[in-house]
Amino acid sequence: MQTIVPRRNRRMAFTLVELLVVIAIIGILIGMLLPAVQQVREAARRTTCLNQMRQFSLGLLNYESGFGEFPPSRVEPEYVLSGSDPTNNPGAETTHQSWSTLILPYIEQVNLADTYDYQQAWFDAASSNNLTTVGTQVSLFQCPSAPSSNRTDQFHIIGAAAGDYGTINEVKKRVYTDVLGLDDPGDNARAGVLSKYEANPMGRIQDGTSNTFMLAECAGQPEVYVGGKVMNATLFSMYTDDKVVEYNGGYVPTDGTGWADPDCGFSINGATPDGLNKYGPAMINAINVSEAYSFHAGGANFAMSDGSTHFVRENVNALTFVQLCTRAGGEVIDGDY
Q: What pTM does this model have?
């Protein structure tokens, strides 16, 4: 009798061509999804940044409620110890106190405030722990979209932790006369809510608290960015302002970069779109020195005087932007921002 041997079932497998096709499809899908994932992550970072600025604005409002006035952007301490300057640039104006240290108890940073001596220079190390305190990396002061989170000042107060938010002190006269082609409205009409050395009560915000900036992003320091690029020797050779200097083979802001530095506030000059010249129509994201600058695509975050926060487009009309910066300009905001 003939024995019938059953045929073994052959195991099916991908051919090389089929495998390559599958890999190609997976690569295409990843390429399509990755930008969407990045956009979601950036949207989350931008929201976090807005929430941080909201904490600052609410802290400033609580400060105003307690003292009857907003803090100045910078103020002199009662006295400053001589010989307590640890900087490499002793000519810099750095002995004052900043709004940022004054509001520490109002932004849930009481423990940090308890280590700080407000009667000494903000960087003092001779009679207090101020230098150690201001060297503390505080996530609240740093935008999550800014490159690196462990940034320190290497030019003024060595080791001072960088911050990404500053006060808008005023709008410079030449912004009106040279950029906007308008008459100078005067010092009071050009002043911001958090002015230098001047504590303003709520009543001085005559343009409306919802129409007046208090704080702006100025992110990325101590690295200098112009027109979306890190400043290099070629860009520096074309730079015409005095807010950036060459130092140790790199380029740094002439003012300090620490979150506690009294120079973390700035006056609005405007810039050319490439960031290399001041007194131009670009008010956001042209240069991250003494101007509004962020790493959010298309604009930057701002804190208003009523406690709200807004993302403002970088192509905002220059006149509208200037009107939002002043507290008593008497303007009616009719532009879209």
A: 0.84
How many alpha carbons fall within 13 Å on the CB side of residue 85?
Answer: 15
Give pLDDT, residue 82: 40
Structure tokens at 128: 């207090």
Q: How far is CA 207 from CA 63, 97, 179, 189, in A?
A: 21, 28, 22, 10
Q: What confidence tens digit (pLDDT) does each residue in 232-284 have?
A: 999 999 999 989 999 888 999 987 789 999 888 889 999 999 999 999 999 99
DSSP E strand boundaries for 206-320: 213-217, 225-226, 229-230, 244-247, 250-253, 266-268, 299-304, 309-313
Gap between the Cα atoms of 258 and 262, Å rounded: 9
Burial of 212 (C-beta count, 10 Å sphere; 0-12/13-18/19+): buried
Strand partners, 89: none
Give the β-pairing of 225-226 and 309-313: unpaired
25: left (phi over 0), alpha (psi -120 to 50) or beta: alpha
Running DSSP on this structure, what letter comes out for residue 72? P
Helices (H), 68-184: 99-102, 110-114, 130-134, 173-174
Other CB atoms within 10 A of residue 209 CB: 17
Tokens of 24: 């190609």
Backbone angles phi, psi at 19, to 5 degrees: -65, -40
Among residues 225, 210, 215, the alpha carbon closest in space to that of 145 is found at 225
At 165-177, the pLDDT tens digits run 999 999 999 999 9
Task: Supply angle C-alpha 277, 279, 285, rounded to 5.
Answer: 70
What sign does the dihedral 324-325-328-331 (CA atoms) show?
A: negative
Could you give phi then psi for residue 40, rounded to 5 degrees?
A: -65, -45
Cβ atoms of residues 49 and 144 within 8 Å? yes
Helix, strand, coil percent content, the chain, rounded in steps of 5: 30, 20, 50
Closest by CA to 55, choosing from 193, 214, 209, is: 214
